[in-house]
Design brief:
The protein has 80 residues and is of the alpha+beta class. The chain contains one helix and four strands; from the N terminus they run ββββα. A four-stranded antiparallel sheet has the order 1-2-3-4, with helices on one face. The protein is globular.
Length: 80
């Protein structure tokens, strides 16, 4: 049984004020968030399900990290 990835069209990012939430195409419930860093403009952090924040990264990398986090969560059947 090989490694199986979810399709690109499975998730989407929606703006929620200054924050972006990642959700499925059929539901707007947030599975993860990316939030702007409060000290450094243009830098972002991923808000993890346990409420902790990731290290500071650029927006593209934050989206990539959030996508991977959600993909693993959904694939393992532990979606919120």
């Amino acid at each position: 049984m090989g490694c199986r990835r979810l399709g690109i069209a499975v998730f989407r990012f929606l703006p929620a004020g200054e924050v972006f939430k990642i959700c499925t195409m059929t539901n707007t419930k947030a599975l993860a968030h990316i939030v702007p860093d409060k000290t450094y403009p243009g830098m972002w952090r991923v808000l993890r399900p346990d409420g902790s924040l990731s290290d500071m990264v650029n927006k593209t990398r934050a989206k990539d990290v959030a996508w991977g986090l959600v993909e693993n969560t959904v694939y393992l059947g532990k979606a919120a």
